[in-house]
Design goal:
Layout (H helix, E strand, L loop, with lengths): L1 H24 L1 H23 L8 H51 L5 H18 L13 H31 L5 H26 L13 H5 L3 H29 L2 H8 L2 H13 L5 H19 L2
């Protein structure tokens, strides 16, 4: 179980680092540079030691990356500075699970059982309990509707992207090809990197004087265009801890441990990030937020057991 614990810890570090990078250079820029670095690292592995771009499922993996790494991460990096890493992780990790289950039922006709539906209801209940603001809370980060919307979009992107990956694996299986997890991540991240690059180009075009009003909703960090050098350590941190080393440890865990044991460990990410978020961001969780997180994580753990 050590690889699963390492993956969980790395995912927490990735989220906290991503929050810091986003507040310096903005979500769109931070996401692009993070994906570019991760793509380079995964490309070295895939082309030197694995299958590279082989397999008929490459197209599906690519579009899975457009949805997951692309749309999902673009929304994720807009949610992080608005909600903080703690609430963003809770929302994304927990809502992504039922959305993936629904997409899988819709496309692959995987029927949900009553216990699975009960788990999904438990997850959504926990998210609602954790995100609803308390009357005495005056902090803007305690509840941000725009951040919640971005978080839901990120969760849907990750969930649907995961279901599309299942389709890609099925396509490769019919061909008799088995690719490793890091190679699959490489084929997916190419689609996400393309969409992230397009987003950067669009933002730069809109930053022209005539387009300032269009960017009225952009974060202050993006409008001020601070030095990328200042954000570089955080970008390197989130790239290494997330799609590179984090995913590597996750796949390492799955090599020797049943997924029914790995998934519950990784599902504790929103809880493990609480002390990191409190230390690095000053985000002090309320009792109700912790209770909601426990309810939601319990639902995810049970959903993994009932798969």
């Amino acid at each position: 179980m050590i690889p699963a614990l390492l993956a969980t810890f790395l995912f927490c570090l990735s989220a906290v680092s991503a929050t810091q990078a986003t507040r310096i250079v903005g979500g769109i820029s931070a996401n692009f540079w993070r994906l570019l670095l991760a793509t380079a690292l995964l490309a070295i592995w895939s082309h030197l030691f694995a299958q590279g771009l082989q397999g008929q499922g490459f197209a599906m993996f690519f579009w899975s990356g457009v949805v997951g790494f692309g749309v999902g991460d673009l929304a994720l990096y807009q949610a992080l500075p608005r909600l903080g890493s703690r609430l963003t992780l809770l929302l994304v990790h927990c809502v992504a699970a039922p959305s993936a289950a629904f997409a899988e039922w819709l496309w692959i006709h995987t029927v949900l059982t009553l216990p699975q539906m009960a788990c999904i209801a438990c997850i959504l209940l926990g998210v609602v309990v954790a995100l609803l603001p308390e009357r005495k809370e005056a902090s803007a980060t305690s509840f941000n509707l725009t951040g919640v919307i971005y978080g839901i979009i990120a969760a849907l992107g990750q969930g649907i992207g995961a279901a599309m990956s299942r389709l890609a694996y099925d396509i490769n299986a019919k061909e008799g090809l088995v690719i490793d997890g890091l190679t699959a991540a490489y084929q997916r991240i190419l689609g996400g990197l393309l969409l992230a690059w397009i987003a950067v180009c669009v933002v730069r075009w809109l930053r022209k004087p005539a387009g300032k009003s269009v960017l009225a909703t952009s974060t202050k960090a993006e409008n001020d265009r601070p030095s990328l050098r200042k954000a570089a350590p955080w970008i390197v941190g989130t790239a290494l801890a997330g799609p590179s080393l984090g995913v590597g440890c996750y796949q390492w865990a799955l090599e020797s441990t049943p997924s029914g044991l790995v998934l519950p460990v990784v599902a504790t990410t929103p809880l493990m990030v609480i002390p990191l978020s409190a230390w690095m961001e000053g985000d002090r969780p309320t009792r109700r937020s912790i209770a909601g997180g426990l309810i939601a994580v319990l639902g995810v753990i049970l959903l993994g057991q009932f798969r």
